Every structure is written in structure tokens, then in C-alpha cells.
UniProtKB/TrEMBL annotation:
Catalysed conversion reaction: 1,6-anhydro-N-acetyl-beta-muramate + ATP + H2O = N-acetyl-D-muramate 6-phosphate + ADP + H(+)
Keyword Kinase found: yes
Protein name: Anhydro-N-acetylmuramic acid kinase
InterPro entries (alphabetical): Anhydro_N_Ac-Mur_kinase (IPR005338), ATPase_NBD (IPR043129)
Gene expressing this chain: anmK
Metal-binding in keyword set: no
Record-listed ATP binding positions: 12-19
EC assignment: 2.7.1.170
Family statement drawn from the similarity comment of this UniProt entry: Belongs to the anhydro-N-acetylmuramic acid kinase family.
Amino acid sequence: MTVRRAIGLMSGTSMDGVDVALLETDGETISAFGPTGYRAYSPAERSILAEAMAEAPALARREDRPPALAKAEGLVTAAHAGAVNDFLSRNGLSPSDVDVIGFHGQTVLHRPQARLTVQLGDGAGLAAATGIPVVHDFRAADVAAGGQGAPLVPVFHAALARWAGLAPPVAFLNIGGVANVTFINPGGSLAAFDTGPGNALLDDWMRTRTGAGMDADGATAAAGAPDEALLTWLLSHPWFDAPPPKSLDRNWFSPGVAAHLDTADGAATLAHFTVRAIARAVEASGGPPPARWIVCGGGAHNPELMRLLRERLQARIIPADEAQLDGDFIEAQAFAFLAVRSLDGLPLTWPATTGAPAPMVGGVLATPPLRQSAAFAEPA
């Protein structure tokens, strides 16, 4: 297998910004981790993305781009192009130093049961603006075949476990806007699925109640008491009883369910909801309970969520950084890894990770024109 140098890009359901990571890999093993970078979305940009998110549920076809989504797609492409070009400049790299970009795009709608998933971002435009080949549209083939299209990262989690010497059974838990888990069982078999809400409900709650974009250090949730009756009702939703693999749209649940509570009790209830949904996932994994959980994503920085996880799971809960992994950039690294796999025709998903009928190759390759275009370059 050929080792390639790849850039991975991730803009998650928290809609805070663009993560950038460089990885050297042959799509099976990790040769080296490179530098990382971040490009934040401004409040005005987050507002544009929120408008697109609000309009997306009306979509009937994944290629449709009504005005709000077209505007957001232009923003997403320009922001990612700016993030890549700035990253190259900061690290003394040229486009010829990079073999491929893995471009996830911005998910605005995910309804796999309707065989519909929409990630905003123009792969051809990004290739033109950076001068680097781009693999994009990672989820579509899996969803079209009847899979969930998510999570996509489990094959990279398995590579990370091998690199870090983490013996199974071990779980990788990503708490982004939506939370997802990969169980690596003895013998190396994988089981993976979304567990339920991650940070999205709590972030939206804090934004509505306080104007803050998050519960800093989990302080508000820690000061409140959960509404047990509401938690029982939330966890009785049929989605939690559905067998995996399964995935969840960011807006499936609304923070409005806690509207009758004060700010602290509402935050506590939503934090407990995230953690108890994660705990339910152990029963559905089909394997032995993992002795170690490697936690990444924004939730790894929330002390209250981490405390609740330790209390509920009764296992070693380890932030990814303590396992010598860069927990804030694992998903960006994963899309670099997946881009290389896509170039080599290797599967990205399996029946046990997305419910696809067979191992699925995914991603669409866009190559840059001979002369680089500035069509999607950010203004100076």
C-alpha cells in the first residue's frame, strides 16, 4: 500500500468551525501525525449555517439548494478553502506536498430512513481553490445502499487503537453535537452507532437561556438537578430501543423539552440525558463491556459530563489526550484517513458499523483544474 500525505477537514454538528489535520497513512495504518489547525466560524457565519439547518428539513432531493442552503454552501466551501490555504502557509507546505484532502462538509440533514443525507460543500470548488485533489460526499453511497451513512470514523478508531496499543475490548466515544461510539471487541470486530444527543442540546439550551454557546466547564449542569420524570420520558423514545447500527439527526430532539425548568436544572437534565443514552449503548453493543473508554470531541472538555460518565459506566474513562491522541482533531484526522482509503478503493463502512448490506467504498474525487481558481477563496 502507498503511504500518502492527506489533509482532513471536519465541520461538525456543533457548527463552531473547521478542524484541519495532516496525516500520513496508507489507509490501513498510521505512519505519522502531522500538524493541526482550526478556523472558527464567526457569529454571522453561524447564523447563516443555522438558517440553512432550519430550511433543510423541507428538502426532498439531496442536490436541491434553495437560497439559504446555496448561501451556506458557498460559505462552507470558502471557509474550508481559507482554512486549508492558511494551514499550508503556516506550516511551510505547498499544494504539491499534499496528495489529497478529505472534505466532510457541513451536515444539515440526515434522514437515512428516507435514503437522504445532505452535507453542504462544493468539492470541485475546494479542489480549484486549493490546487489539491479532494475526496468529498463520503456518506451518500452508504445511504443509497440502505445504510445509515454514520458513523464513518470506526475504521480509523481501530487504526488508532492499534497505533496506541489499546487492547480490546475498548470503546471510542465521540461527544460532538451528536454522540457516537465505536466498540472494538476481542478479535478486532467492530460495532458502531450513534448513541443519542451529544453537546447539541446543551449548547442550544445555553445559547437560548444565557446567550453563551456552551456550558463552560459544565458548571451550569453541575449546579442543577436533573428532572427524573423528564429523563424517563426522553429515554422511552423508540429510537433508543431500535437495534444498531443507527444514526441520529442533530435536531431530532429539542432543548424545548426542558422549557419548564430553570437554567441549571435544564442543563443538568440535558447533560444526564446525553450520558444515560451513552450508557444504554453498552447493552446494545453485542460484546463485552469495555474496560476503557477513550473520549474525544467537545464533550471530553466538559468535567461534568466526564464525571457523569465515570459514575454511570463504572469503567476507566480516559480523555483521548491521555492516551497520546489529539482528541480535538480525531475526526479531522479520520477524514484524511478515509480519503486515502477512498482513493485506494478500500471500504469505509461495514454492515456492523452502518447497517449497509455489504462493505461499502465511498467518497467522490474532485481534481483541481490545471490553473488554480480563486472562485472560492476568502477575501483578504
